[in-house]
Every structure is written in C-alpha cells, then in structure tokens.
Amino acid sequence: MKVKTFVPGHISCVFRPVRTDDILTTGSLGFGIRTDLGCTATVWEREDDAIDISINGKRCDASITRSAVESIADGRGFDIRLKHDLPLGQGFGASASGTYAATLCVADILGKDSEVAAIASHKAECTMGGGLGDLLAITSESGVPIRAEAGIPGKTSDSGVNLQDLTLIVFKEPLSTASVLSDKDMMEKIVREGDRSIEMFFSDRSVGGLFRAANSFSERTGLEQQNVHDALLKIRDEGYHAAMCMLGNSIYSTIPVDHAAELFPEADIFKTGCYEGPISVRRI
C-alpha cells in the first residue's frame, strides 16, 4: 500500500521565538503565509526496518525527517519519496513541510492520527535546528495564519488577509536558520522586534499592513543581507510590496513574475499563492 499527501510551504513574515521547558509549548508567535507550493510525499512500507528517504530524486539522510519518522514508526521500515516545489533552506518551511508530509503518511499506514505526526514533526524541528513555528502554521487551515499560542497543538487564527498572487525571488546562497537561532544577541533583538512588529500588524490587518510590519521586522533586527536589502528597495521603487522571507536569502512580493525576472535575471523566480484548507492523505 502506498499513501500520498501534499503539505503546503510556509513563509514566516514575522516571528517571535518562545522557548519553554516543555518542547510542546516551545515554538514561535507571529504571522506568515501558507503557500500552494510545498512538498508532496509518497510513502510505502518496506519488508525490513530501514527508513529510506529521497528528496527530489536523491537519496539523503534528511536527519530531521528521519528522526520524526523513527519516533512513530514502531521499528518498521518505510520508503519515503519527497518532492519539494521550492528550494530548501530559503525560508519556505521546507524542513517542516517535508517532515510533516512524511510523518503524516507513515501515521496513516500505521493507523495513527495526524496529531501524532504533528507532535513528532514539531519535536524534531525544534530540537534539531529546523524552524520554530512553521509546523504550527502549516497545520492551520488559514492562508495567512496568525500564530497566537506557540507549540503543538498551539493556537492559530485567521488574519483575514488574502494573498493569491505572490512572486518569490530566490538568490543563490541560503541562510542558516540554526546559526541565527543560536545567536543570543540576535535572538534578544528578534524577541523585542518581533513583539513590536506583531502589534504593528494587529493594528492594520491588510496586505499593506502585513508588508509594512514584515519590513520593519527585517530592517530593525538586521536580518536583511545587503543583496536582499537592495532588491527590496528596487522592487518598492517599482511600486510593489516586497519583504524578506524568514529565514532565507529570498523575497516574497506582489511584483509580477515577468517583471521580477527582468529585474533579477540571476535569481530563481516562482509564482505562488495562499493555500487554504485542510491537509489530506490519500491511498494510491
């Protein structure tokens, strides 16, 4: 028996880390965008106890995904094939979407519910250098969810913002999420500015308000690399909204795809929109 699922990606616009003694309440507050580009997983059980993972056709260790799957697999083996629509390590929640897609499929085969998959994925993400809040956002059903209570199951609400036509601009070198999240001084700044930018968005829940709060956050924390900063200015000069993906060497914007390709011929360009609704698993 094979099972298959699609899990949306997630762009964190603003995040405010929350760390507690309980991994299930550790995560982040903030808001972001569930994208209709994400990860498709196809999984089937093996006759041995091996966990074999490939990403976009290449076998790999995928340590976060492997850890989450092993924690719920009951010693059974699985072949896991993950296909990502967007580059890894560029602020699109690829680690969380891939891990959750894999664990959802394994849980379905084993007769376990989706909460088991979410908890396993969240634990692996938070303890092994993945994102702090992507999993919570991905498991919501809103296109632009607010992360109101950190952790899993946590709590989300619908921001009411609708972003159906977005362009993603991806530069070549990814940022290291783990290095940013382990920098004490940077984390203190992110907490302070995260609180400020969340309140800023709450006072203006609109497309413009989202981008203004996101821009304030990336500028005041100093997370923008020079090439991202320059690209954001160039897009705004053209009359469009744009902001930095957290945490990536990448941008999301309302600029049309063709126009973005003209401005940034060296970048990879993608078109996406909000993904709304639940995630389902089907048997094939």
Structural class: alpha+beta
Shape: globular
Nearest-integer average pLDDT: 95
Number of domains: 2
In percent, how much strand structure appears in the residues?
Answer: 25-35%
Let me know the number of strands.
12
Structure description:
This protein is an alpha+beta fold. It folds into two domains: 2-159, Ribosomal Protein S5, domain 2 (2-Layer Sandwich); 166-272, GHMP kinase, C-terminal domain (Alpha-Beta Plaits, 2-Layer Sandwich), CATH 3.30.70. It is 37% helix and 28% strand. It has helices at residues 63-72, 94-110, 114-127, 134-138, 177-181, 184-202, 207-221, 226-237, 257-263, and strands at residues 2-18, 27-45, 51-55, 58-59, 78-84, 145-149, 155-158, 166-170, 242-244, 250-253, 268-272, 281-283. Strands 1, 2, 3, 4, 5, 6, 7 and 12 form an eight-stranded mixed sheet that branches. Strands 9-10-8-11 form a four-stranded antiparallel sheet. Helix 1 packs across helix 3 and helix 6 (184-202) runs antiparallel to helix 7. The radius of gyration is 18 Å and the shape is globular. The protein starts with a strand and ends with a strand. The mean pLDDT is 95.
Fold topology:
Layout lengths: L1 E17 L8 E19 L5 E5 L2 E2 L3 H10 L5 E7 L9 H17 L3 H14 L6 H5 L6 E5 L5 E4 L7 E5 L6 H5 L2 H19 L4 H15 L4 H12 L4 E3 L5 E4 L3 H7 L4 E5 L8 E3 L1
Parallel strand pairs: 3-5
Antiparallel strand pairs: 1-2, 1-12, 2-5, 2-6, 3-4, 6-7, 8-10, 8-11, 9-10
Helix pairs in contact: 1-2, 1-3, 2-3, 6-7
